[in-house]
Amino acid sequence: MREKAVITAAITGSIHTPTMSPYLPITPKQIADEAVRAYEAGAAVCHIHARNPETGMPVPDLELIKEIITDIKSRCDIVICITTGGGLGMTVEQRVAPVTIYKPELASFNAGSINFALFPVIPRYKEWKFPWEPQYLAMSEDFIFPNTFKTMREYCKHFADNGTKPEFEIYDAGMVNNVAFLIQAGYVKKPVYIQFVMGVLGGITPSPENLLFLVDYAKRLIGDFEFSVCVAGRAQFPICTQSLLLGGNVRVGLEDNLYLDKGNMAKSNAEQVAKIARIARELGVEPATPNEARQILGLKGIDKVNY
């Protein structure tokens, strides 16, 4: 285990919809407020998506993103990781635009194409707050989340040109090999930062055995890297705890899981951050500060962003 671990809070994402939780932040102010609360609870990084403030639908609106990130930056020094995954159906140009315009310290970089399925949750709800919600979820039955080698090569250049560190999202084992190829081809330099994303239908399932395999596989193919773990659903805290035991970092937040424990909805991202911070401390691991996270991850610094 390490002495310091980076806790990331994924504030709202593009998976859960307003019907699923009354606590899901929707407006720019709600998202920024949640990021600041997560920082106060021990998060060193916040992962940011934007939503339509009227309907809660995920949108690639650069002005909304700017409103969110400038508000957060004005109130604390948390590392801001902007999504380039976006929402279902967004174009490559829409997805990478936040990197080229705002030049963040950190941004997500999806390391391969997968079936990204959300549709099985539809039968759980009889009524919806907004008509877009079931339509949005249903389209994922016939949706491939595209991240081709051409796209990844182009992404690497955008990230390098703007001094933004990629957070490689690994949804399945083959994506470890994809990152190894990007390194071998000279598109990205080591040490890389990898996040193992477990529990999305279409990707690898969350289990202790699978995480051990992924970490070992990455060590064999890549060698020198930092890693974090995020888990969709109820396995979030057990598998994130395992990441701490393996010397990794962790991500929690309402993007990944709407609950604090069984039957108890999380009322904020900060509640989840506080829980994983407590678990880390019980294991002798102290949550890293934002500046310690910058050192651990090799980031350029908050003074070099464009917002």
Lay out the secondary structure.
Elements: E1 4-5, E2 7-10, H1 28-41, E3 45-48, H2 62-75, E4 79-82, H3 92-102, E5 106-110, E6 114-115, H4 132-138, E7 144-145, H5 149-161, E8 165-170, H6 174-184, E9 192-198, H7 208-221, E10 225-231, H8 236-245, E11 249-252, E12 259-261, E13 264-265, H9 269-282, E14 286-287, H10 290-297
Parallel strand pairs: 1-14, 2-3, 2-11, 3-4, 4-5, 5-8, 8-9, 9-10, 10-11
Antiparallel strand pairs: 6-7, 12-13
Helix pairs in contact: 1-2, 1-9, 3-5
Report on this model:
- The protein is α/β, with parallel strands linked by helices and 307 residues long.
- It has one domain: TIM Barrel.
- The protein contains 10 helices and 14 strands.
- α1 (28-41) packs parallel to α2 and α1 packs parallel to α9 (269-282).
Summary of the model, kept short:
This protein is α/β, with parallel strands linked by helices.
Shape call: globular
Task: Give the H and E element order.
Answer: EEHEHEHEEHEHEHEHEHEEEHEH
Q: What's the CATH topology name? A: TIM Barrel
CATH architecture: Alpha-Beta Barrel
Helix content bin: 25-40%
Number of helices: 10
Kindly report the spatial arrangement of strands forming the biggest sheet.
2-3-4-5-8-9-10-11
| Ends distance | 35 Å
The radius of gyration computed from the alpha-carbon positions, rounded to a whole number of angstroms, is: 18 Å
Which band does the percent of strand residues land in? 15-25%
* CATH class categorisation: Alpha Beta
What is the CATH H-level superfamily? Aldolase class I
Overall tally of domains:
1
Stretches with pLDDT under 50, minimum 5 residues: none
Main sheet summary: 8 strands, parallel, barrel
Strand elements, count:
14
